[in-house]
Amino acid sequence: MHYLSNLFRALDLTSLGDMVLRLLSVLLCLTVHELCHGLAAYALGDPTAKQQHRLSLNPLRHIDWFGFAMLALAGFGWAKPVPVNPNYFKKPKQGMALTALAGPLSNMVLALVLLLLTKLLWKGSMTGSAQVLTFLLRTALLSIGLGIFNLLPIPPLDGSKVLFAVLPDRQYDILMRYERIGMLALMALVLLGVGGSFLTTTRYWVFDLFCRIVGL
What we know:
This protein is mostly helical. It has helices spanning 2-10, 13-43, 48-51, 65-74, 92-124, 130-150, 158-164, 169-177, 179-192, 196-214. It is globular and about 55 Å long.
């Protein structure tokens, strides 16, 4: 019993609890992001995501484990791309752009909703809500970071599909065909920490702006 007592004292349960909440935040942000990609594509006439069971709130259907780890550790990451077939869209380039944009926008909306909930709970002075408030604020900040990161115009991030939509068809097809090369470049930039300070500064600026919008 003495050994077990020492073992439990050695465990930082607060840190473990923070880690669990951090992972829950990541799962929520990624799931909303990918679900909204699928819903946007489906609304525009593409049933591919639905057929592959990606219109789901089950986070395991959306997780890319490396992107998940990066989001948990660095605040910027990604999930498994939702399958999209632009041939179903009446205007393929525009359809891809709108589908891509739905992910980052959903993260911004999620952040605003979480901050509004934070305000309501804080003004309600709920007993024992400090941990809940912290979870909501951290998740909002994480969601903003995910949205901003995915708006970068680097393939295969969502921002590249929005930017490419204004290009002529030939250049568009070439860039879309070789977006896997962009993924390698993106991973290198993430691992080297290039642009990290800019992304962090922008994330906190947007967070502050959203706090002002909801009155926090």
